[in-house]
């Protein structure tokens, strides 16, 4: 049986900054005796709304394991702009930390993303990673994503997407091929000298609209002010394009309301923090292209 962690270039390894893709990266490096081929690139697409712990984790994986991780951020998606100008390469110190790439996408679109139209993932991750590879001169490549064996519905969608031939890349899922589950990932990180240091619901963008309401309350309760940026995006877009109804990331409530809820009841117990959120159990950006559009 071939080793699923042996990757043939040209390839893009999508590192989301979560434990699962970190696990995958370690095993890919191990399968290549610690050194990746020159045409296999590891990328982290920063949204500017990642938790500092995530940024530190990405940086630590790279430095401890001796692998180059390219940090890239969305700039624009205008077709007339050269692909190299549609993203910016940054590093741990220079990475955006105040939502700049995310705000740029929202401004460019003129409306907010939501659970159905998740253009934040599409533009800040899938398309930005594509532009990165195009800028290096690749026309086609292998896209390596960290979908596990216990995420079979997503894996199946990945295979279906490959079969459709709609993308210029072919997606491979070494963790799914190797039968790796969340339990294996957790056991691996329990043995390491460092870790992400976040609870599962704290990963991805700090107050992502896909997080359930109790989790967003908990985010604001434990880190007051986190929801301000999100509320500000709603207010700004409301003023510009949607005066009548008010723009929201989530139809049922605004971020301003969530902030008020927590102010009124600062000691509320959110509950349900460890429930599975079907949309949040995957690291953002590992969804297959098309699903997030
Ligand atoms: S984590 Fe949520 S808000 Fe951030 S890019 Fe992904 S879907 Fe969008």
From TrEMBL:
<dbReference type="InterPro" id="IPR002500">
    <property type="entry name" value="PAPS_reduct_dom"/>
</dbReference>
<protein>
    <submittedName>
        <fullName>3'-phosphoadenosine 5'-phosphosulfate sulfotransferase</fullName>
    </submittedName>
</protein>
<keyword id="KW-0808">Transferase</keyword>
<dbReference type="Pfam" id="PF01507">
    <property type="entry name" value="PAPS_reduct"/>
</dbReference>
<dbReference type="GO" id="GO:0016740">
    <property type="term" value="F:transferase activity"/>
</dbReference>
<feature type="domain" description="Phosphoadenosine phosphosulphate reductase">
    <location>
        <begin position="12"/>
        <end position="194"/>
    </location>
</feature>
<dbReference type="InterPro" id="IPR014729">
    <property type="entry name" value="Rossmann-like_a/b/a_fold"/>
</dbReference>
């Amino acid at each position: 049986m071939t080793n699923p962690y042996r990757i043939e270039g040209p390839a893009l390894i999508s590192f989301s900054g979560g434990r699962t893709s970190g696990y995958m990266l370690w095993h890919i490096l191990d399968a290549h005796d610690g050194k990746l081929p020159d045409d296999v690139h590891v990328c982290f697409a920063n949204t500017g709304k990642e938790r500092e712990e995530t940024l530190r984790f990405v940086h630590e994986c790279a430095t401890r394991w001796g692998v180059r991780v390219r940090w890239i951020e969305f700039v624009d998606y205008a077709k007339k702009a050269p692909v190299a100008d549609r993203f910016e390469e940054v590093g741990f110190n220079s990475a955006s930390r105040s939502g700049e790439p995310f705000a740029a996408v929202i401004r460019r679109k003129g409306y907010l993303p939501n659970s159905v139209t998740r253009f934040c993932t599409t533009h800040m991750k899938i398309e930005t990673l594509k532009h990165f590879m195009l800028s290096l001169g690749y026309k086609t490549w292998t896209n390596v994503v960290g979908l596990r064996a216990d995420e079979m519905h997503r894996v199946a969608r990945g295979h279906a997407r490959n079969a459709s031939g709609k993308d210029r890349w072919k997606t491979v899922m070494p963790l799914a091929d190797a039968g790796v589950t969340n339990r294996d990932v957790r056991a691996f990180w329990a043995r390491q000298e460092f870790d992400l240091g976040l609870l599962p619901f704290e990963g991805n963008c700090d107050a992502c609209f896909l997080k359930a309401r109790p989790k967003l309350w908990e985010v604001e309760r434990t880190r007051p002010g986190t929801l301000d940026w999100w509320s500000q995006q709603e207010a700004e877009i409301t003023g510009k394009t949607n005066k009548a109804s008010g723009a929201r990331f989530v139809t049922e409530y605004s971020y301003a309301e969530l902030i008020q809820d927590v102010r009124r009841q600062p000691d509320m117990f959110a509950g349900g923090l460890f429930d599975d959120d079907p949309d949040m159990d995957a690291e953002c950006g590992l969804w297959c292209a098309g699903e997030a559009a």
